[in-house]
Design a protein that fits this description.
Length: 84
C-alpha cells in the first residue's frame, strides 16, 4: 500500500522525539492545556511514522533513508569474479 521510506536510524530518532513530545505534553498539561494537546498530537504523529516506517512528507519530497541493497545478480557476479 505505502512504500517504506524510513530507515533504522531515522526510526530510532523519531521514536525518541515522539516519546519526548508526549511526555512534554503530559508534564505541561495542567498549566498550558493547548500546548499539551499540540505536543501530544505532534508526538503521536511522529511515533506513528516511526512504527509504520512511512513518512508522507518523505514520499512527497522523494526522500528514502533506508539502506540501499544491491540486486542479487550483481552480488553473485562480484563473488564469481573474486573466485577467479
Amino acid at each position: 500500500m505505502f512504500k517504506n521510506n524510513v530507515g533504522g536510524v531515522d526510526t530510532a530518532i523519531r521514536a525518541v522525539l515522539g516519546s519526548l513530545f508526549i511526555v512534554l505534553g503530559a508534564v505541561v498539561a495542567d498549566q498550558r492545556p493547548f500546548l499539551a494537546l499540540g505536543a501530544g498530537l505532534v508526538g503521536l504523529a511522529v511515533l506513528v511514522t516511526a512504527i509504520a516506517g512511512t513518512c508522507f512528507l518523505y514520499t512527497d519530497l522523494g526522500i528514502d533513508t533506508r539502506p540501499r541493497t544491491r540486486p542479487r545478480s550483481e552480488v553473485k557476479s562480484q563473488l564469481a569474479h573474486q573466485l577467479r
